[in-house]
Amino acid sequence: MNQQSATLANPKMNLSRLFSSIGPGLLMAAAAIGASHLVASTRAGAEFGWQLAWVILAVNLLKYPFFAAGARYTAATGENLLQGYLKQGRKYLMVFTLLNSIAAVASTAGVAMLTAAMLTQFVPLAIDVLALLVLLSSLIILIFGHYALLDKMTKVIMLALTLTTLIAVALAFNAPSLLEPNFVSQSPWQWAYVGFLVAMMGWMPAPIEVSAWNSLWLIEKQKLQPVSKQQALFDFNFGYLMTALLAVVFLALGALVMHGSGEQFSASGVKFANQLINLYSQVMGSETRYLIGAVAFLCIFSTTVTVIDGYSRTLNMGWQLLTKQGDSERRLNLVMLALCVFGLCIILFFKGALLPLLEFVMILAFMTTVVFAWLNYKLMISTALLPADRYGSAMRVLSWLGLIYLVSFAALFIYWMITK
Q1: What is this structure's pTM?
Q2: What is the pLDDT of residues 118-149, one digit of tens each?
Q3: Which distant-in-sequence residues (6+ apart) come within 8 Å of 151 by Cβ?
Q4: Between 1.20.1740.10, 3.40.50.620, 3.20.20.210, 3.20.20.70, what CATH number should domain 23-419 receive?
């Protein structure tokens, strides 16, 4: 019996190989379950109840073709997305790299400050100092541990956060309702809330440039073990579905525990972290507060590490392809260092105001999303792929619906900014 037949005959071996092949998709989920979920989804539930649940699911569906491009292109060609952009023309890669540079600094600042805010629950230091420590720790993990450590660490942290949040929501469903009999939820479909809606959708489930990270992580995974096209697509779909469902779970937590209480999330990073942990401890018991805080901190910390790694890899690869230089570990480490330095400068500028910083980052992500989405769609229907690997009619229709949605809301937001 050959090795392939033995594997097919042994379901446990199949399951083991499938689990070990999971990695890039889960890293993508770790990058997503940060500000978009813990902040935007929970805040949407706290302020508007269940009204935006369908919007979150719709956004995840409409963005799916653009995120899937990373795994599908790499699985089909063995190349990363940036190499695909370059095949379309040098200008496409230059546009991606320019916008990616701006997004990289802003996103790093946002997730690092959120991590530091969580850390204030345990360490009595200023949020700026803690942000510096978070960035330094992330650099150490990435420089000395690289992909293998990031892959293993993320699986454990994501499992812990998922279980904790599911338990909290299950308990919240059985808790007494906070709503008064005559309470009427405010509608999110008001002109004043356009900025919030755009910010929520900007990082839902994550910035679209994450598709390029997924592409590079898949190549790194293939260096450790063989990954078939089917395994790569299963991994991506698993991670993407997990982010979509957990977004609704976080909204449920805000809706069940905070909606109708009269309390709103504070713009202060320290106070926001305290409020977020209180959401869990109200339904799981005050004695679980530190455990919940630790899990939430580890989740956001893994997001920070993942974001720094993903943006650094794409910036380094973009530079490498544009300048026709060889691969360089030293250059990658320098990009990581520069990203952390510029991110820290933005954190110092916002002076601990977490929600304004995150709203700025999410809006920026939404405005650049249109370009990243178009680049991915153009690549997935191009002759760079074999006909069987290109997007079919269903994915093309979904892509065009997604592009119309993105362009329409971007135009609406610009008009809102001008007229408000």
Answers
A1: 0.82
A2: 888 888 888 899 999 999 999 988 887 655 66
A3: 23, 26, 27, 221
A4: 1.20.1740.10
